[in-house]
Amino acid sequence: MSSTSVLRHTVNELIETIGEAPQPDGLHVYIQKTPEFIPEIPILYPHRMADPLLFLVLDGEMTLKMNLVEYTIRKNEFLFISPNTIRQFISHCNDSKMACMCFSIDFMLKTGIAKSSLDPSAFISSKQSPHLVLTSEEANTISQLMQLLYERNITPANYPFREERLIHCFGTLMYELAAIHTNQHQKLPLKLTRKEEISASFLNLLTQHFKEQRSLQFYADLLFITPKYLTQTIKDILGKTAGEMIDEMVITEAKVLLHSTSHSIAQVAESLYFSDQFFFSKFFKNQTGLTPTEYRKVS
């Protein structure tokens, strides 16, 4: 089954759930003025977007998962979500406030920023941590630039130098974020432990093969270690066994697919390489306590 069958949301679909009209040019900046309920759809279930999504928490905290890894971001902390990452918002406190920005790849290409020899957008796809803890001064700078970018983006189309001012402001924001990211990661130890290397390699392999391969032996063989050592290593580094990580990845993908009501249970089972619908349903219920049909009704 084509990867295009996986449920995805566009920037505009996400924006509509928070009661806002899409902004022009493939760019949307959202500045939350007062605490308010974070909408249920599409935020509270696993989904993908083809575009990057950047968050700055202005107050309170929120928790979300990206490709099974859970992050809690608090005041003056920043998170960037790479394109096509499976994301799921888990919780937020009642007084949480945030500023966020999402933009299309077409918009970024139009700005010319990706053609720079020092492309500041590269940090969006960095394999290093996407979670940044900012100083109060850094957070204030980013917040002000996002506010300015918002104002530039809603300026009438016939305003003099509208596009040039917008592109300049976007570039300044991206360079500021890239500088903070580079500065923080230059200070981190570059040498991973053997167990950290195995864990990183396992997660990379898992995202590539989880649909068709759920055997510990398969991943252990690719890493040239025993299944027992793989299980213990992943448990030590990630807090879950390798088997649990495999099952969680499959279940997360299954939930994404089940939200697409155009797919039957049998089609979902087939896309995840289960031998038939019965075995998929049994696996899903063992993991979630619900049958796929029950999950689809309540989700």
Automatic annotation (TrEMBL):
InterPro entries recorded: Homeodomain-like_sf, HTH-like, HTH_AraC
Tell me where on the tree of life, at the top rank, the source sits: Bacteria
**Molecular function as annotated in GO:** DNA-binding transcription factor activity; sequence-specific DNA binding
Q: Which Gene3D superfamilies match?
A: Homeodomain-like
Q: Which SUPFAM superfamilies match?
A: Homeodomain-like (SSF46689), Regulatory protein AraC (SSF51215)
HTH araC/xylS-type domain location is 200-298
**The entry's keywords:** DNA-binding, Transcription, Transcription regulation
Q: Does the keyword Transferase apply?
A: no
What's this protein's name?
AraC-type DNA-binding protein
